[in-house]
Design goal:
seven-stranded antiparallel β-sheet; 2 iron, 2 sulfur cluster binding; Cbr1-like_FAD-bd_dom; 19 strands; oxidoreductase activity; globular; oxidoreductase; Rossmann fold; Elongation Factor Tu (Ef-tu), domain 3; single chain; Ubiquitin-like (UB roll); alpha/beta; five-stranded parallel β-sheet
Length: 315
Amino acid sequence: MNTQRVKVRRIVEQTPEIRSFELVPCDGSSVSFTPGDHIDVHAGKDLIRQYSLWNGPDDRDAYQIGVKREENGRGGSAAMHTLKEGDEIEVSLPRNNFELRSDDGPVILIAGGIGITPVLSMARHLQAMNRKCVLHLFARSDEHLPFKNELAALDEVPIHLGLVPPELDAVLTRILSNPPKDARLYFCGPGPFMDLIENLAKTCGWSSDRVHLERFSVEADSLDLDGESFELVLQQSGVTLTIAEGQTIIEAMEAAGLEPMTSCEQGVCGTCLTTVLEGEPDHRDLYLNPAEKDSGTLIMPCVSRCKGKKLVLDL
């Protein structure tokens, strides 16, 4: 994977938990991105994490990311919060799993907490294009509201603070009800918040092809890693492994002394995306779209398995 060296130019305390980072390419080059993009940040040895860009259309000299410190996380956010201005790190080139479509219909954006980052970038681009959009932002309190300066520059940003069920359900239902046929919905935030919006969108009559979301992580107890053992052949490596019940492909590879490229280990980031050469994958991820899953040619080995007895991968 191609990487580039960047310097931390500026760090801003957005909230007690969220810091924003301006990352400037050390070679002086400008940055190229699209709204919804993210970058892989090499935060330490064998520690790669994905962070969405919140850049506006004119922010071409630095990558702008936001990082929420997760007290019970896997180390990435803690490592990022130790960075100082002037430090240098490696990042990937931007890539997009949360693309802003180019049609002209109205857009509803919904964000919760740190989920604001990709959605903020979308809002800034849409406003620059004079496209009709509204960004609904949900946060615990005003103290936990990030990017206030950037939000103030947007035309329509209803702020919803401290809502709990059933009030939250009622507000979201009001936002999602009676959608125009040409409208699109984009949302990002904590898992339960995302699940609620996804379910309410269906109830309110949104067509699935007009609903777009990005998950930063999934709840640990929602990961389905069960399944029967199967034979795994790594074509390039010339290695054959037995994947045990409850063991992931990535775990088996690491146990065999291999070093697969991986990051989230939850099937959401796309880092471990691999080509299937033979066998039928049993998809457990949230990264591939339905068409990609139906093709049977790709797999996320951090969570997905094999429906048969043998799987051959291009690794």
